[in-house]
Specification:
With 425 residues, this protein is an alpha+beta fold. It is built from twelve helices and 16 strands. The strands form three sheets. Strands 1, 2, 3, 4, 5, 6, 14, 15 and 16 form a nine-stranded mixed β-sheet that branches. Strands 7, 9, 10, 12 and 13 form a five-stranded antiparallel β-sheet that branches. Bound molecules: zinc ion.
C-alpha cells in the first residue's frame, strides 16, 4: 500500500529489553471490564452509549494521572499523548477500540488500548523519554454493531469515510452518530485532524485458535486478508403451507438449498485459508405455515490470497445466479461491503519481530482474519500489528479470555517495538 512518507527507522534494541507491569495491565483490563459487564462474564459496551462514555472517562483519568494530554475529535476518536523530547516530530502511535459487541468479551480492542497505556506507564516507571511523542488512539465504533460501518472512527481519521457520512449513520432506534456525540458531550464540532504518524502498532488478541494451537505467544501480523460481504435477496410468493402442492409453489428457500452446498464446495476448493460464512438467513413473513414470500441471506467471504479470493467470489456469484435461474425466481446477489487485503509496513513488522526476539518469545507470522482499525491506519501511515493468543480462539463471545502472561508478553513486545521506533532505546 502506498505510504505518504519514508519508512521509519528501527533502532536496534541494545542491552536488556524493557518490561511492562503485567499486574497493572491486568488490573486495568479487569476494571474496564466492569463497565458494561454482562451476567455471563462478558461486556456490552457498544459505541457511543453511556457505557462507552464511562470507559472513555476512566481511561482519560488513568492517562492524565500518567501525565498524558487527552484529545477527542468529532469522529468520536480519543487520543492520549505522551510528549516526546522533540514534540514537533511525528508520533509513534498505538491504538485500538473500547467498544464491544452486544455479547462481547473483555479483551477485543480493549487490550490494544490498555497495552498502549501500559507502554506509557512503563516508560514513566523508568523515567525514560522518547525522541518522538507517543500517542494511544481509541478509535470510535470499531465493531460496527450499533452504527453499521465497522472501523468508523479510523476510517474518518484516515480520510476513507467522509465525516458527514459517519455523523449520519443511525442505530436501530434511529439515533445518529452526531446526536449521540452531542448527547454524550464528545467534541462533536472539533475538527478531525490527522496528526503526522511515524509508525503505528496495534496489539490485539488473535480472535482465532492458531497461536494457541501451535504454542506461540506472539503473532507477527504481516497483513490483513481480503474480505467482503454479499447480500442475497430472493422473491417468492406467499402461499398456504397446506393446500399448495410442492410443484406449484414459488418458494425462495429452494434457491438457498441449491446454492449452499455449492458455496461450501467453492470455499473448500480454495484451500485451508478460505473463509465463507452464511451468518444471516431471514424469511418473511417468518410464519411456520406460510411459504415465504421473500428470502434474504448474507455471505461473508475472506481469503488472504488475491487470486483465490477473486476466484471464490466469482464462483459464489455464479452459484447464486444459477440457482435463481433454475427456480425462475426474481432476486439478486449484491456486494454490500468490501475491504481489500492490506500488506503491513516492513519496517514496522521488523520492529515487532526484533522486539519479540530480544524478549525471547516464540513468534508466528500471520495474516489477520479479522478487520482492524490498523487496516485504515495503514492507508496513511506505516503500520503493523501484534497478536496474542486467546483461549480456544474465542472472540465476539462473553467467554473470551486470554492469559495474563500472554497479554504481558504482547505489551512487552509493543513497548520495545515502540521504543525502537520512537527513539528511546
Ligand atoms: Zn477488535
Amino acid at each position: 500500500m502506498a505510504q505518504q512518507q519514508p519508512a521509519p527507522t528501527v533502532r536496534p534494541i541494545g542491552g536488556e529489553p524493557r518490561r511492562v507491569n503485567g499486574d497493572r495491565l491486568w488490573s486495568h483490563l479487569m476494571a474496564m471490564a466492569q463497565i458494561g459487564a454482562t451476567p455471563r462474564g462478558g461486556c456490552n459496551r457498544q459505541a457511543l452509549t453511556d457505557g462507552d462514555l464511562a470507559a472513555r472517562r476512566l481511561l482519560s483519568s488513568w492517562a492524565r494521572a500518567a501525565v498524558c494530554t487527552v484529545r477527542e475529535d468529532s469522529a468520536g476518536n480519543l487520543f492520549l499523548r505522551r510528549a516526546g523530547r522533540n514534540d514537533a516530530l511525528p508520533v509513534v502511535m498505538s491504538g485500538s477500540h473500547l467498544d464491544t459487541q452486544p455479547t462481547g468479551g473483555k479483551f477485543d480492542g480493549v487490550y490494544g488500548v490498555l497495552a498502549g497505556l501500559e507502554v506509557i506507564e512503563a516508560l514513566n516507571d523508568c523515567g525514560l523519554a522518547t525522541e518522538h511523542p507517543i500517542e494511544v488512539a481509541v478509535w470510535c465504533n470499531e465493531e460496527g454493531c450499533r452504527f453499521p460501518v465497522a472501523m468508523m472512527g479510523s476510517a474518518v481519521w484516515s480520510g476513507r469515510l467522509p465525516l458527514a457520512a459517519a455523523h449520519a449513520l443511525t442505530d436501530g432506534s434511529g439515533r445518529s452518530v452526531r446526536e449521540e456525540l452531542e448527547r454524550l458531550g464528545i467534541a462533536a464540532d472539533a475538527p478531525v485532524v490527522r496528526q503526522p504518524v511515524l509508525a503505528s502498532l496495534e496489539a490485539h488478541i488473535e480472535q482465532g485458535p492458531v497461536l494457541e494451537r501451535c504454542g506461540r505467544s506472539i503473532g507477527v501480523v504481516t497483513g490483513v486478508q481480503n474480505m467482503c460481504r454479499y447480500e442475497v435477496v430472493v422473491q417468492g410468493q406467499e402461499a398456504h403451507a397446506g393446500p399448495t402442492p410442492m410443484d406449484m409453489r414459488r418458494d425462495p428457500v429452494r434457491v438457498l438449498a441449491e446454492a449452499l452446498p455449492q458455496l461450501y464446495a467453492a470455499a473448500r476448493a480454495r484451500g485451508e485459508h478460505a473463509r465463507l460464512t452464511v451468518g444471516v438467513i431471514e424469511t418473511s413473513p417468518g410464519s411456520p405455515n406460510t411459504v415465504p414470500g421473500r428470502l434474504r441471506f448474507t455471505i461473508d467471504v475472506r481469503h488472504p490470497d488475491g487470486a483465490d479470493y477473486a476466484r471464490l467470489r466469482s464462483d459464489i456469484e455464479a452459484s447464486v445466479r444459477t440457482a435463481l435461474a433454475h427456480h425462475a425466481l426474481a432476486g439478486d446477489i449484491r456486494l454490500s461491503w468490501e475491504a481489500p487485503g492490506v500488506v503491513f509496513d516492513p519496517a514496522c513488522i521488523g520492529a515487532v519481530r526484533a522486539a519479540a526476539s530480544v524478549l525471547g518469545y516464540d513468534t508466528l507470522d500471520m495474516v489477520s482474519g479479522a478487520g482492524h482499525d490498523s487496516c485504515n491506519v495503514a492507508a496513511v501511515a506505516p503500520t503493523a500489528m501484534i497478536f496474542v493468543p486467546c483461549a480456544g480462539g474465542l472472540s465476539h463471545n462473553e467467554a473470551e479470555t486470554a492469559s495474563p502472561a500472554d497479554l504481558a508478553a504482547g505489551a512487552n513486545v509493543l513497548l520495545n517495538a515502540m521504543l525502537s521506533l520512537a527513539g528511546g532505546v
